[in-house]
Q: What sequence folds into this?
C-alpha cells in the first residue's frame, strides 16, 4: 500500500462520505442532570471549520457523553475524523474520553509508526486508521480539528468542573 | 487567439521571441532545486511559484559571496569591507529600481511586500497622529475619509488598511469582483468619491491570475486626489513592469517570488511622497541629528530603513532582478503566456471548475480551481503523491473565496522555469483525482 493509500483508507473515505453525527442538534437548554456545550473551531491555514455540540448526562457512574453532533466543511480527513470520533466517544465516561483524546494525539504524533501497542490501537476502533495521516505533518491538524472542538465544547459545558 | 501583447504595457512593441527548448533547458539547469525528486523518487513538478519561487545559482552564490568576501555593516565604518558592502547594497538597489522602472532613491528595502504595505499604512497613521510636520499634510486622514481596496486583495493589502481605518476613523470601501473574479468597475464613481484618500489594489490576483485595470484605477484615484498603492507581488516576477509608466504612487513587491531570497522586498514610492512621509520604524541608521529631546530624520530611502538591513538578501534580490532582465521580461511574459494557455485547459477535465477567468486575456499563469466532490486539500495530496506541488487553501484571500462561495481551492502557478510538459503532467494527474476518491 502506498503512503497515499495508507492515509486514504477505505474506512476513512466511507466515513467522509457518510459522516456520523453530522447535523447540529438544536441549542435548547439541557434538562436537569444534563449539560451541553458548543464550540466552533477553524483551521486557519485551509479555512476548514467545524461547529460541534456535546451533551453530557449525569449517571450512576459519573458523567458520560450522551450525544455529539456537528456541522462543518473540510477535507475528507477532517470530516472522517469528526465522524469516527463521534462514534467512539458517544456513551463513554468523561475520563475515558480524555484518555482516548490523549491516545489519538499520541497516534497523530507517531509519524506513521503507530503506537506499537495493539490493545491501545484497538481501543481507538476506526480512529486507528488515521495512522497513515500522521505521516503527513500538514494533515495532522485536519484529523485533530474535531477533537479540538470536542475538548473545547466539553470545557464550555461545565462538565469538566469538579 | 490573444498574444502576450495584451499584457504588455505599451502594446506597440513587436512580439518577443519565445524561449527555445535549449534556452528553457538552460534556465532550468540554473535552478538546483528543480533537479531533486520527491515522494519516492518522482521528478518534482513545482507549480507553487505564486507562493514562492525557486532560486537560480547566481542568487544563491551572490549571498554566499557576500558573506565570504564583503560582509560588513553598510553606510558606516571606515574600512574597505564597509565600502564594498555598501557598494554591493546600493548596486542592488539600483538593479531593483531599474527592473521596475523606478529611480534608485525611490526604492526602500523592506522585509517583504507585507512589511512594505504596512509601512505605507503606518506612515499614514503617523501622519494622522501629527507626525511629519506640514509636509505630511497630504497623508493625514480625517474620520469619514475613505480608503478603497478590492474584494480580490491578498490579506496583506487588506488587513493593514482595515487597521488604519480602525486607528483613524477612516472608512474602508471596496470594489467587488465579477463572476470571473475580475475587479468590477461598474459604478466606479460611487466607490471612488471625493472622500477617497487611498486606492490600494493588487496588480495581478494571486488567486485568479487576473490583471487589474491599473490605468482606470489610477485615473479614477487621480481625479479625486487619492494616493494609489499597488501590490505588485504577482506582476513583477512575470511581466515587464514600469512603475513610472503605470503612474502609481506606491508599490510593493517581494524578492522571494521573483527568484530572489526570502526576508527582503521593496517599497517603491514616488520621490516627492517619500520625502514628505514620516518614518515608521525608528532607531539607528535613519537619523540626522539625535539629542536627548528629539531627532531629525535622514532623507529617503534611509529614513525608512532603521536598524541593520538584510544586506546579503538585498544583494541577492539585485542579482535576481538582473538575471530576469538579461533573459528579458518580455520573453518571460511570452513564455508564461503559453503556460497560462495550457493551465486554463484544466477546465476541460470533467468535474474541474476554474475560479477565475477561463481565457488568457489579461491573465497570468496562475489557476485556482475546485474539483466537484473532492476537497482542495485532498486534491493537493493526490497531486503531491505524483510529485506535483500545488497550493491548497484560501491563498490568503478569504473574501475572494467567499465571493465564489468556496472556502478553499487548489492553485497551480508557473514561473519562468516551468515547462509545458509539466503542465501536461499536472493535467493528467488532475484527471485521475475524482476516480481516486470514487466520486466519478
A:
Amino acid at each position: 500500500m502506498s503512503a497515499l493509500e495508507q492515509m486514504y483508507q477505505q474506512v476513512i473515505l466511507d466515513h467522509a462520505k457518510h459522516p456520523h453525527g453530522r447535523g447540529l442538534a438544536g441549542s435548547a437548554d439541557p434538562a436537569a442532570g444534563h449539560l451541553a456545550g458548543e464550540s466552533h473551531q477553524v483551521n486557519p491555514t485551509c479555512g476548514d471549520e467545524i461547529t460541534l455540540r456535546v451533551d453530557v448526562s449525569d449517571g450512576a457512574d459519573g458523567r458520560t457523553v450522551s450525544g455529539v453532533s456537528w456541522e462543518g466543511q473540510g477535507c475528507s480527513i477532517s470530516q472522517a475524523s469528526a465522524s469516527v470520533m463521534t462514534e467512539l466517544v458517544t456513551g463513554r465516561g468523561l475520563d475515558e474520553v480524555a484518555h482516548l483524546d490523549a491516545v489519538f494525539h499520541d497516534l497523530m504524533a507517531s509519524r506513521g509508526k503507530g503506537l506499537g501497542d495493539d490493545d491501545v490501537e484497538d481501543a481507538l476502533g476506526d480512529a486507528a486508521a488515521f495512522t497513515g495521516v500522521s505521516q503527513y505533518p500538514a494533515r495532522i491538524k485536519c484529523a485533530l480539528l474535531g477533537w479540538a472542538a470536542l475538548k473545547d465544547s466539553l470545557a464550555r459545558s461545565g462538565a469538566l468542573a469538579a | 487567439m490573444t498574444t502576450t501583447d495584451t499584457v504588455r504595457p505599451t502594446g506597440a512593441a513587436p512580439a518577443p521571441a519565445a524561449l527555445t527548448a535549449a534556452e528553457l533547458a538552460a534556465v532550468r539547469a540554473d535552478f538546483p532545486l528543480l533537479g531533486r525528486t520527491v515522494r519516492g523518487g518522482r521528478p518534482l513538478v513545482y507549480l507553487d511559484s505564486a507562493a514562492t519561487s525557486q532560486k537560480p545559482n547566481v542568487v544563491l552564490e551572490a549571498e554566499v559571496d557576500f558573506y565570504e568576501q564583503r560582509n560588513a555593516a553598510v553606510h558606516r565604518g571606515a574600512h574597505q569591507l564597509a565600502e564594498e558592502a555598501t557598494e554591493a547594497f546600493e548596486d542592488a538597489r539600483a538593479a531593483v529600481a531599474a527592473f521596475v522602472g523606478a529611480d534608485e532613491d525611490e526604492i526602500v528595502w523592506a522585509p517583504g511586500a507585507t512589511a512594505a504595505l504596512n509601512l505605507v499604512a503606518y506612515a499614514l497613521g503617523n501622519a494622522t497622529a501629527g507626525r511629519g510636520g506640514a509636509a505630511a499634510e497630504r497623508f493625514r486622514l480625517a474620520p469619514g475619509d475613505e480608503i478603497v481596496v478590492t474584494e480580490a486583495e491578498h490579506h496583506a493589502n487588506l488587513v493593514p488598511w482595515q487597521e488604519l481605518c480602525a486607528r483613524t476613523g477612516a472608512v474602508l470601501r471596496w470594489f467587488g469582483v465579477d463572476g470571473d473574479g475580475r475587479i468590477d468597475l461598474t459604478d466606479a464613481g460611487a466607490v471612488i468619491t471625493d472622500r477617497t484618500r487611498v486606492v490600494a489594489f493588487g496588480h495581478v490576483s494571486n488567486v485568479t491570475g487576473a490583471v487589474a485595470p491599473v490605468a482606470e484605477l489610477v485615473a479614477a484615484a487621480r481625479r479625486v486626489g487619492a494616493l494609489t498603492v499597488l501590490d505588485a507581488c504577482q506582476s513583477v516576477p512575470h511581466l515587464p513592469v514600469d512603475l513610472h509608466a503605470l503612474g502609481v504612487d506606491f508599490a510593493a513587491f517581494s524578492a522571494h517570488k521573483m527568484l530572489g531570497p526570502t526576508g527582503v522586498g521593496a517599497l517603491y514610492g514616488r520621490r516627492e511622497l517619500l520625502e514628505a512621509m514620516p518614518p515608521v520604524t525608528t532607531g539607528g541608521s535613519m537619523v540626522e541629528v539625535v539629542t536627548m529631546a528629539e531627532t531629525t530624520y535622514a532623507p529617503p530611502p534611509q529614513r525608512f530603513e532603521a536598524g541593520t538591513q538584510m544586506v546579503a538578501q538585498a544583494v541577492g534580490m539585485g542579482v535576481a532582478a538582473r538575471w530576469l532582465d538579461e533573459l528579458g521580461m518580455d520573453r518571460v511574459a511570452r513564455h508564461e503566456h503559453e503556460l497560462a494557455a495550457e493551465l486554463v485547459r484544466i477546465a476541460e477535465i470533467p468535474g474541474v471548475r476554474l475560479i477565475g477567468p477561463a481565457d488568457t486575456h489579461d491573465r497570468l499563469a496562475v489557476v485556482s480551481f475546485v474539483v466537484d466532490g473532492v476537497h482542495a486539500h485532498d486534491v493537493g495530496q493526490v497531486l503531491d503523491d505524483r510529485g506535483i506541488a500545488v497550493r491548497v487553501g484560501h491563498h490568503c484571500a478569504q473574501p475572494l473565496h467567499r465571493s465564489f462561495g468556496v472556502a478553499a481551492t487548489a492553485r497551480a502557478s508557473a514561473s519562468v522555469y516551468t515547462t509545458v510538459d509539466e503542465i501536461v503532467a499536472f493535467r493528467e494527474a488532475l484527471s485521475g483525482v475524482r476516480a481516486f476518491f470514487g466520486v466519478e
Q: What stands out?
A: Helices of chain A lie at 3-7, 10-17, 76-89, 94-108, 118-123, 137-157. The domain at 3-157 of chain A is CATH 3.90.1010.10 (Sufe protein. Chain: A).
